[in-house]
Amino acid sequence: MVWYCCVPNCKPPKQGEKVFIMRMLPIRDPERYKIWINRIGNSDLKNCEDLKEAYKKYRVCERHFSSHCIITGEKQIKRDSLLTLHLPSFHEESSRENSLFRFFKKKQQETNIAVKDFASLPEPSNVPDLEIDIQTSTLCPTNLGKTGLMGNCT
Ligand SMILES: [Zn+2]
Predict the structure, then answer these.
(1) Which residues pair with 81 in a beta bridge?
(2) What is the pTM assigned to this prediction?
(3) Ranges for the THAP-type domain (predicted)?
(4) What is the pLDDT of residues 59-109, one digit of tens each?
(5) Which of 11, 65, 72, 130 is 20 to 30 A from 153, alpha carbon to alpha carbon?
(6) Is residue 88 assigned to a domain?
(7) Would the pLDDT of 148 be above 70?
(8) Angstrom distance (rounded) from CA 86 to CA 43
(9) How confident is the model over 3-50, as pLDDT tens digits?
(10) Helix 30-40 vs helix 101-119: angle between axes, to the nearest 10 degrees?
(11) How many domains does the chain have?
(12) Residue 119 falls inside a structural domain
């Protein structure tokens, strides 16, 4: 059985080139599975609701995993690896945080906490509405029609 990578436009190795190792989808880990599916960007796979079928039918080649996922001297990649490379719908630079789920999750939690803290701040009550003093503002009368408030006055 010859496997093809399910990432759109991912080319199989040419004859004589090193054969890519194919990875199975992490169907037992729903959170990680969802990230994989989104990053792979294959709409057939996205619409495939039967996880077992997806597991049987789809593979991802090793080109999509950064050095953060590699275990030196082994064919296996780290268990919580996420794809980051050569993906049509994912263009972030590979970091520990987007290549390995444990760090991804940690960062996500930190971000959530930060957002929650911000939301729970009391509404400012004694702050007056912003007033604009035409004399001291950066309005530029000659350019106003064209460029608006932040017009270049030189
Ligand atoms: Zn591939």
Answers:
(1) 100
(2) 0.71
(3) 1-91
(4) 999 999 999 999 988 888 999 999 999 999 899 999 999 999 999 999 989
(5) 130
(6) yes
(7) no
(8) 17
(9) 899 999 998 888 888 888 999 999 999 999 999 999 999 999 999 999
(10) 90
(11) 1
(12) no
Q: Which amino acid is at 28?
A: R
| 49 Cα to the center of ligand 1, angstroms | 22
Cα–Cα distance measured from residue 76 to residue 21, given in angstroms and rounded to the nearest whole number: 9
Distance of CA 44 from the midpoint of ligand 1 (Å): 16
Q: How far is the CA of 26 from the centre of ligand 1 (A)?
A: 16
Euclidean distance between CA atoms 137 and 116, whole angstroms: 35
Domain for residue 122, yes or no? no
If you measure from the C-alpha of residue 129 to the centroid of ligand 1, how many angstroms do you get, rounded to a whole number?
55
CA of 63 to the centre of ligand 1 (A): 6
Per the domain annotation, does 149 fall within a domain? no
pLDDT (tens digit per residue) in 106-140: 998 998 887 777 666 666 666 555 555 545 444 44
Give residue 61 CA to ligand 1 midpoint distance, Å: 4
